[in-house]
């Protein structure tokens, strides 16, 4: 219930494409597409397949906009529970626990596209009303799900980026108190600051919180196109892999606290873009995956991989190139890739020279000590320039073009386009799924 541009192929942010599609085809057809998209994205066959791999828990991301409107805040939209309830029940039917992840918050709780705010400024942290609204929302969610034993817990705020590192503690205190007043039983999974990587300013806050796990997101640079070198599991690389992970969980280990890895996993090459190099690249990425799993198994760490389904970049299953959606957007997706307008795993090789003068200008005119703006060091200078210029500015110009693909489509055609995301229309990433299944068997037998 939280769309991301690299997952389903649109440019920019979810709120932008929803508005653009409504302008092109009207509210009724627009709502039909997005409702059917969510329906087809996860059905009984998906839950059955997920369980068949030996996995027993899935994290469910959702957008706050399903439950309230910015122009009508703190008024619950009951239809928001339609798909969340449906997926929770499907997973329960197949013996899969769920963790509810508020992936976007009003104003944007982080500086990236997946906060669905359309800006690199996380205004959630500067407006109390935005914070009040998620406290209210979690009260409503807790009322609705208290007593549901197939929900393993609540993940109240995905990947926060509070530049002062203190307001996050205040927000977590408020969320903890509000949820616990209604639901004393479900576990809470609290993300670290700076994209779930940094707990160094949490101090003794844990002493106020019970039945809480602390969530890291353990992505490795070796799993992405920007990897500094080919990955061959050298001692140096394995040390870097382990050290990055240990730094994220250091605060918890020093205090004997529970750690959960809420997101991790490489992205994968695609033959239409990487050509003959695809298999070799993916062999490396699978090795990164195996080496991370070995670390997690040694520490008996529970995790939720990112992600289950997409259009072919990271998912365990992915939409076939022969489906109506993928054929309709084939040329558009190629343009997106060429222009590197998605931040996640972007390969900017074809446009790097275009932006280099801007990078050089800032390096030349801005003092070195002023170039590292938060969330540095997670965002390097080039990352920040890319976010603002490619992922926000250029992508904004392509939003209308994405929506125009639907112009003149009948409701039946729109339904077929959305059906492209059904399990029956998807291919399986066999290499990834075998590694996960083998690991599940290994852990079960340990």
Explain what the structure shows.
The chain has 446 residues and is α/β, with parallel strands linked by helices. Helices cover 48% and strands 10% of the residues. The chain is built from 17 helices and 10 strands. The protein has helices at residues 5-8, 14-25, 27-41, 44-52, 81-93, 128-145, 167-182, 193-196, 235-255, 271-274, 278-298, 324-328, 330-339, 352-365, 381-404, 411-419, 430-445, and strands spanning 57-63, 97-104, 151-155, 187-191, 212-217, 259-263, 302-303, 309-310, 317-319, 426-428. The strands form 2 sheets. It has a 7-stranded parallel β-sheet. A 3-stranded mixed β-sheet has the order 8-9-10. Helix 3 (27-41) runs parallel beside helix 16 (411-419), helix 6 (128-145) packs parallel to helix 7 and helix 11 (278-298) runs parallel beside helix 17. The longest helix has 24 residues, at 381-404.
Count of runs of 4 or more consecutive helical residues: 17
What is the chain-wise order of helices and strands?
A: HHHHEHEHEHEHEHEHHEEEHHHHHEH
Helix content: 40-55%
The fraction of residues in strands falls at: 5-15%
Distance between the termini: 35 Å
Number of strands: 10
Please mark out the parts with pLDDT under 50 across 5 or more consecutive residues, or reply none.
Answer: none
State the major sheet: 7 strands, parallel
Determine the structural class based on helices, strands and strand pairing: alpha/beta
Q: Give the spatial strand order of the biggest sheet.
A: 1-2-3-4-5-6-7
Computed over alpha carbons, the radius of gyration is 21 Å
Average predicted confidence as pLDDT: 97
> What form results from the Cα inertia axes?
globular
């Amino acid at each position: 219930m939280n769309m991301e541009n690299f997952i389903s192929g649109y440019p920019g942010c979810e709120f932008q494409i929803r508005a653009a599609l409504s302008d092109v085809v009207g509210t009724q057809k627009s709502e039909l597409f997005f409702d059917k998209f969510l329906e087809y994205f996860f059905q009984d066959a998906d839950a059955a397949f997920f369980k068949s791999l030996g996995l027993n828990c899935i994290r469910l991301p959702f957008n706050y906009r399903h439950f309230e409107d910015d122009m009508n805040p703190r008024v619950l939209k009951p239809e928001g529970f339609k798909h969340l309830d449906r997926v929770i029940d499907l997973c329960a039917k197949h013996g899969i626990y769920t963790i509810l992840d508020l992936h976007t918050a009003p104003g944007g709780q982080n500086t990236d596209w997946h906060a669905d705010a359309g800006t690199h400024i996380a205004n959630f942290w500067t407006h109390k009303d935005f914070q009040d609204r998620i406290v209210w929302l979690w009260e409503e969610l807790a009322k609705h799900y208290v007593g549901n034993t197939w929900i393993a817990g609540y993940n109240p705020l995905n990947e926060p980026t509070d530049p002062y590192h203190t307001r996050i503690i205040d927000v977590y205190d408020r969320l903890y108190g509000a949820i616990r007043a209604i639901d004393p039983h479900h576990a809470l999974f609290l993300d670290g600051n700076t994209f779930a990587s940094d707990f160094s300013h949490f101090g003794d806050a844990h002493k106020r919180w019970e039945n809480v796990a602390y969530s890291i997101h353990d992505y490795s640079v070796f799993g992405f196109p920007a990897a500094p070198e080919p990955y061959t599991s050298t001692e140096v690389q394995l040390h870097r892999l382990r050290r990055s992970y240990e730094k994220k969980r250091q605060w918890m280990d020093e205090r004997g606290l529970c750690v959960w890895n809420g997101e991790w996993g490489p992205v994968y090459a695609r033959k239409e873009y990487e050509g003959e190099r695809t298999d070799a690249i993916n062999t490396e990425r699978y090795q990164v995956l195996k080496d991370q799993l070995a670390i997690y198994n040694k520490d008996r760490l529970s995790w939720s991989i990112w992600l289950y389904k997409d259009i072919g970049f990271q998912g365990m299953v992915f939409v076939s190139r022969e489906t109506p959606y993928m054929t309709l957007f084939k040329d558009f997706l190629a343009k997106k890739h060429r222009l590197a307008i998605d931040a996640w795993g972007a390969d900017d090789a074809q446009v790097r020279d275009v932006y280099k003068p801007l990078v050089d200008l800032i390096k030349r005119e801005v003092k070195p000590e002023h170039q590292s703006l938060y969330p540095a060091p997670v965002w390097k200078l080039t990352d920040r320039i890319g976010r603002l210029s490619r992922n926000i500015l250029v992508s904004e110009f392509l939003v209308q073009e994405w929506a125009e693909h639907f112009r003149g489509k009948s409701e039946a055609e729109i339904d077929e386009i959305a059906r492209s995301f059904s399990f029956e229309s998807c291919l399986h990433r066999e290499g990834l799924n075998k590694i996960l299944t083998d690991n599940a068997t290994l852990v079960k037998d340990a």
